[in-house]
Amino acid sequence: MSGVRRIIVGVSGSPGSLQALRHAAHLARTHHAPLIPVLAWTPPGGDLADRSHPSPYLRQVWRDAAWQRLWAAIDLAFGGVPEDVCFESDVVRGEPGDVLVSAACRPDDVLVIGAGRRGALARALSCRVSRYCLAHARCPVVAVPPSELAQVTHGLRGWAFRHRGVSPDDVRLPAAH
Asked: What is the pTM of this model?
């Protein structure tokens, strides 16, 4: 038995979080530790909007929607709950970085996160959760890089352009009239 007690993984439904979820399941199998996917959610409009006009009914709707996003991500990653690993899931209201660091609160936990997109601009705009977790976690953090497909910057069109020697900037679309 290893010194790893739990594998906590941040899930949002993004391609990067699905990659992290798959990697976390592999770690859970390897260390015989429970896999705990965690999805953080905040109300539409933020907490300030919710506090100014509280609605228990809407809070329950938002919480249910968060659970649905979590189960959809699990289905996309595995086709359902993996049977070969102990599985516990959680949906927590709050900012993702804070929620994940709070969930992975013991030194023998491992926190798995998606590393986000590559490139300076993409990192600056979209990797706040990763940076927060790496800076504040009290346990080891595994930042899983995006898959090769996720690194394609212009989707399938970008792939086609790169393989024809044409960039998206070389193509001019006709002006709309």
From this structure: 0.77
